[in-house]
Design brief:
By secondary structure, the chain is an alpha+beta fold. The chain folds into two domains: 122 residues, MutM-like, N-terminal (N-terminal domain of MutM-like DNA repair proteins, Alpha-Beta Barrel); 139 residues, Helicase, Ruva Protein, domain 3, CATH 1.10.8. A four-stranded antiparallel beta sheet has the order 1-6-7-5. Strands 2-3-4-8 form a four-stranded antiparallel beta sheet. A hairpin with a 3-residue loop joins strand 6 and strand 7. The longest helix has 20 residues. The two termini are 38 Å apart.
Length: 276
DNA sequence: TCTTTATGGTGAG
DNA sequence: TCACCCTAAAGAT
C-alpha cells in the first residue's frame, strides 16, 4: 500500500469504519505498545489523517496511532470480529461494535502524544502533502525555486519527502512524464513554463491516482486497454513499468534505468534531456 | 525450494 | 552510492 494516494484511500476506508465513535477495543502486536491498549480502548476516534505516506489515527484525549506501511503494510476493514483470509501478520486492530480496522505486515507503528508528533524524526521533516487541497501550484513553484531544492536533480528531489510528501517511485516517473521533463534536469534550469507544468503535474497526477486507485494513465485509455486484456502493469501508467514498450503519445520506445536501487522510466522524445 | 523484486526509509562512508 | 532493515509475492530452479 505504498504511495500517498493509496495511503489516503486506506485512511478514507479506515475513517468510514471507525471515525467519530469510540473504539471499543485496540490491540497491538508489538509488546512495547501493549501499555497503550487500555488507554486507547473506549476512546473516540476523532480523525484519520495522512501526512504523505504516514497515517495518524487521532484519539480523544490527544494520543495518536502513527503507522507507516513502507512497502508491505496493508489495511483491511471487516465486520466486527472478522479477520481476512491472509497469510499476513496482524500488527494492529481497532474494533468498534460494527467494524474492525486491521493493519497487517507493517513494522512501523507507534503511539504519539501531540508534542511527539511535532518532533517526530520522520513527520517533522515532511514537506507539504501532494494531496493537500490547500497546496497551490504557485506555492509549489515557489518551493521549486527555493535554494534548498533548486539545484538538485528532479529524479532525487521528487523522492525526497521533505520536498513534497507522498510521492514515491511510480508517481515520480509519471509526474515527470506528464510534465514533459527529463529526470536529470534541475529546478533552477527549468523555464517558467516548465516549472509551472511540473508543479501542476505533481498535484494533478497525485490526485488522479487518488481518485482512480493508483491509475495515473488517462482513464479512458486505461479502461480500453484493460478491456483488451492488457496486464495490470501495461495499462495503469504512462511510462512506469513499461520499459521497451511504446509511448502512447509519440510512439517512441520507453527506457528505464536504475539509480539508488529505484527504477526510473522515461520517454526520451516526450522528455528531452537537454533544454530546447 | 530457492532467489529476486517491490509503489519505502535509514545511516554509514 | 551502498548496505541494510522491514515483509510478501512472484519468478526461477
Amino acid at each position: 500500500m505504498p504511495e500517498g494516494p493509496e495511503i489516503r484511500r486506506a485512511a478514507d476506508r479506515v475513517a468510514r469504519a471507525i471515525a467519530g465513535r469510540p473504539a471499543t477495543r485496540v490491540r497491538f502486536a508489538f509488546p512495547e505498545l501493549k501499555r497503550f491498549e487500555r488507554r486507547l480502548s473506549g476512546k473516540r476516534v476523532d480523525a484519520v489523517d495522512t501526512r504523505g505516506k504516514a497515517m495518524l489515527i487521532r484519539f480523544e484525549g490527544g494520543l495518536s496511532i502513527y503507522s507507516h506501511s513502507q512497502l508491505y503494510g496493508r489495511w483491511y476493514v471487516r465486520p466486527a470480529g472478522q479477520l481476512p483470509r491472509t497469510g499476513r501478520t496482524l500488527r494492529l486492530a481497532i474494533h468498534n461494535p460494527d467494524r474492525s480496522a486491521l493493519l497487517y505486515s507493517a513494522s512501523e507503528i507507534d503511539v504519539l502524544r501531540p508534542a511527539e508528533i511535532e518532533t517526530h524524526p520522520f513527520l517533522s521533516r515532511l514537506g507539504p502533502d501532494a494531496l493537500d487541497r490547500e497546496l497551490t501550484d504557485s506555492a509549489l513553484e515557489a518551493r521549486l525555486a527555493d535554494a534548498r531544492f533548486a539545484r538538485r536533480q528532479l529524479a532525487a528531489l521528487l523522492l525526497d519527502q521533505g520536498f513534497v510528501a507522498g510521492i514515491g517511485n511510480y508517481l515520480r516517473s509519471e509526474i515527470l512524464f506528464v510534465a514533459g521533463i527529463h529526470p536529470a534536469r534541475r529546478p533552477r534550469d527549468l523555464s517558467d513554463d516548465e516549472r509551472h507544468a511540473l508543479a501542476r503535474a505533481i498535484r494533478r497526477v497525485s490526485r488522479r491516482s487518488y481518485r482512480s486507485a493508483g491509475i495515473t494513465n488517462d482513464l479512458e485509455r486505461a479502461r480500453e486497454l484493460r478491456a483488451r486484456g492488457l496486464s495490470r502493469s501495461a495499462y495503469r501508467h504512462h511510462v512506469f513499468g513499461r520499459a521497451g514498450e511504446r509511448c502512447w503519445s509519440c510512439g517512441g520506445v520507453i527506457e528505464s534505468s536504475t539509480r539508488g536501487g529505484r527504477r526510473l522510466f522515461v520517454c526520451p522524445s516526450c522528455q528531452p534531456a537537454a533544454q530546447a
